[in-house]
User: Fold this.
Amino acid sequence: MKTNSLSKWISLKIYQYELTFGLYMLEPWEKYIFNIVFALFFTFFMFRGIAMFPDVTNYVVEKSKYYLSMESM
Assistant:
């Protein structure tokens, strides 16, 4: 019974994804290409975000210290 509800939930999420991005009107090969490009861009931005997170965090902390203490860096 649980697998049936899980498969319905997954089908619903796929349906919502296709409606949101307008993929329901594309051919299967066009959906495939769109999903590959989307996954590549998403992966690239996630890796860049993770790689830059320590630098950005350090910058924000240093600026916060400066503005809270009103001392020069």
Q: What stands out?
A: The longest helix spans residues 28-69. The helical segments are 2-21, 28-69.
